[in-house]
UniProtKB/TrEMBL annotation, chain A:
The lineage of its organism: Bacteria, Pseudomonadati, Pseudomonadota, Alphaproteobacteria, Acetobacterales. InterPro entries: PepSY-ass_TM (IPR005625). It comes from the Bacteria. It comes from Acetobacter lambici. The chain crosses the membrane at residues 12-36, 142-163, 184-206, 326-346, 366-386, 398-417, 429-448, 454-474. This is PepSY domain-containing protein. Keywords: Membrane, Transmembrane, Transmembrane helix.
Length: 481, 96, 90
């Protein structure tokens, strides 16, 4: 590669990275958390910890769910759906979309009794943030699609820039060297070792967002999106026929237990996620909602269709087993660190030639990287501190998240850089270490020792310790300067 | 994938990463290995061996469906590379 | 800026070229979908999978070519031809 070409690619890598990097960091960080969205929802509803992990769905609980569906239907509520118990969430949920999030009663799968859970967006908050940045639809999705395309170009230019040193520097990490060198090593190490993951997650993300970024222009026909919309407003959507019988038939016909039930257009569809397959094409059986008569089941997909579903499944990670999910979590964390270290490297490298962009980038790094982590931890704290039965507690949690993030931005913009970083990192440290203690005081006794609470609390504490550790690095760096 | 197969897969992939690391100049320098006329041949042999060991790990892991098992192997390879980079970083610290 | 100074206009041309490559993908993709109306449900995902893979290459290509004018010309030509093909389908 000629030096001029290298300089052009470096310019693209630097500026595209700087412009989209903060949003990419937020997308990767929340996406990594969203891998465990169901588990986070359960942690944020500690009342569900009383339900054993291997609870079996009883016909009594299914009848109770059907009764709730019929009541909702008669009250004119929008169509609900059922989430059936599975190892990740052993409760039975009757949910509907209220314009902001999925809400509805949570039932004990054995007794059918309503569990008095606190209303929260739970892990769905991170999932929603991941692909919309909480910007109103469709602008959020469009922005994320643009960032995904820019990120793909950044990854590709990074690979081309580093290609020559990819092999010789593969295991290089010099944490004892200068700040800029250490950051570059971390950036390159997480980038090159996780390259298959970066390529896979960026490409599959592009495919998922392609509807917004790669629209199909149709000059003389109504748009496909409009043509595909199902007729709305069927007067009654709740099934009259027994759901228990449909459930039994589905188990027999599909060979696996269904995971969720949808009601639409006079039909009831019971779908099963294909666990450990990476295939996002769920198996479904459809019944007539009134008579309970079996109508159809999912046709076998062609090889091309299956490839498309696997590409989606690789990104959505819905059908993964726990091992692969944790490995994906590691990959997501490495991607987040790669983006974060790249952004901080930009400011660490330019210390000798301070410019306006340098100061702005330094402050935005503190506000948008440190602030986001603080805000994410604060949502867990708000979840425990806001009284469980406040009507608007779900909205309050989200407001609290953005409030804390806004305060971090204000601090970063007004205070000297070192001071604002000390305050934000200190707060992150305190929040991270406080979460296990707050959880211990507020969650039911039965929840304490569960793997779910142990994992979430440990990760929060680890984040807190890392933030406090970064304060020590900052002190060392200040002495060095 | 049972726990035993996972442990064996992880150990094999770790060994494969370690063998590949031994073929890199900066790692050899760290352990004080001098360059000799046979160094180039050693490097080729080490890298081929690392690939064979990784292939063995993939074969061990292939228990149920291929795609998730291959994904596990690739992710383990990436994570083990980071672990080895960290270990090598601390080895340098000890020596200085 | 270092040894290899490039004028800001050159980067503007290259960024415009990268955007034109994206437009070309949309127009060519739409034209291909319009060419196979009976299979649109199968062609659209295929087009999006291919275009998602090609888009980063196209964007990098705009910064790879030696002369910014070539980048602009190439991107513009692809977009224009895609637009023409799509217009002929209408």
């Amino acid at each position: 590669m000629t030096p001029a070409r290298r300089a052009r690619l470096a310019w693209l890598h630097r500026w595209a990275g700087l412009v989209t990097g903060w949003a990419a960091f937020a997308i990767f960080f929340t996406g990594t958390l969203a891998l465990f969205d169901t588990e986070l929802t359960r942690w944020m509803q500690p009342e569900t910890a009383l339900i054993p992990q291997d609870s079996q769905l009883t016909s009594y609980a299914m009848d109770r769910a059907q009764q709730i569906l019929l009541e909702n239907d008669h009250a004119g509520a929008p169509p609900s759906f059922l989430l059936l118990p599975e190892p990740r969430d052993p409760t039975l949920r009757v949910l509907h979309y209220d314009g902001h999030s999925f809400v509805g009663p949570t039932l004990d799968p054995q007794t059918g009794q309503t569990i008095p859970v606190r209303q929260t967006e739970g892990g769905n908050f991170f999932f929603h943030f991941h692909y919309t940045l909480r910007i109103p639809s469709p602008w959020g999705e469009r922005l994320v699609a643009c960032i995904a395309f820019a990120f793909a170009a950044i990854v590709f230019s990074g690979v081309l820039l580093h290609l020559k040193r990819l092999m010789p520097d593969y295991f290089t990490l010099r944490l004892k060297a200068s700040m800029a060198r250490s950051l570059l090593d971390i950036h390159v190490l997480t980038g090159s070792t996780m390259l298959p993951f970066h390529i896979m997650i960026t490409w599959t993300g592009l495919i998922l967002t392609a509807e917004n970024a790669l629209p199909v222009i149709q000059l003389d026909q109504p748009s496909l999106a409009q043509a595909d919309i199902a007729p709305q407003g069927t007067p009654h959507w709740a099934p009259q026929a027994s759901l228990n019988l449909m459930l039994q038939q589905t188990r027999t016909r599909l060979g696996i237990a269904p995971s969720y039930v949808l009601f639409d257009d006079g039909k009831t569809t019971l779908s099963a996620i294909r666990q450990n397959s990476l295939n996002s094409n769920d198996l479904s059986a459809t019944f007539d909602s009134q008579s309970g008569e079996f109508l159809s089941k999912t046709k076998d997909a062609s090889q091309i269709e299956d490839a498309f579903y696997i590409l989606n499944g690789l990104h959505l990670a819905r059908s993964m087993g726990p091992l692969l999910r944790w490995l994906w979590f590691g990959g997501g964390l490495a991607s987040t660190i790669m983006v974060g270290s790249g952004l901080i490297y930009y400011t660490a490298r330019q210390k000798k030639q301070p410019a306006y962009t340098f100061h702005l980038a330094q402050r935005l790094n503190i506000a948008l990287i440190g602030g986001l982590v603080t805000a994410c931890l604060s949502i867990f704290v708000f979840n425990r501190l806001i009284p469980a039965f406040w009507a608007a507690r779900s909205t309050l949690e989200v407001t609290g998240f953005f409030g804390i993030w806004a305060v971090c931005l204000l601090l970063a913009m007004t205070l000297p850089v070192n001071r604002s970083w000390r305050i934000i990192a200190g707060t992150t440290g305190m929040l991270g270490l406080a979460i296990p203690a707050i959880d211990g005081c507020t969650a039911p006794l039965a929840a304490w020792g569960t793997p779910l609470h142990l994992s979430v609390n440990s990760l929060c504490a680890l984040t807190g310790l890392t933030a406090i550790g970064s304060l020590r690095i900052l002190s060392g760096q200040a002495r060095h300067d | 994938m049972t726990d035993t197969v996972l442990c064996l897969t992880e150990a094999t992939i770790f060994a494969s990463c370690l063998i590949w690391a031994c073929s890199l100049t900066f790692v050899r320098n760290k352990f004080g290995l001098q360059a000799t006329p046979t160094t180039k041949k050693q490097i080729i042999v080490l890298r081929l061996l690392a690939l064979v060991v990784f292939g063995r790990a993939v074969k061990i892991s292939l228990a149920n469906s291929a795609i998730p098992d291959i994904a596990i192997c690739i992710m383990l390879l990436s994570i083990n590379s980071i672990i080895i980079a960290l270990l090598l970083c601390f080895i340098e610290k000890k020596r200085s | 800026m270092g040894l290899y100074v490039t004028r800001p206009q050159a980067y503007t041309c290259r960024i415009a070229s990268a955007l034109l490559v994206w437009l070309a993908l949309v127009l060519w993709g739409s034209a291909i979908v319009a060419f196979f109306p009976a299979f649109s449900q199968a062609v659209i995902p295929g087009y999006r999978v291919m275009a998602s893979a090609l888009a980063p290459l196209g964007m990098i290509w705009a910064f790879w070519v030696t002369h910014p004018g070539y980048a602009l010309l190439g991107g513009g030509g692809l977009a224009l031809s895609g637009g023409l093909v799509l217009a002929m389908q209408a």
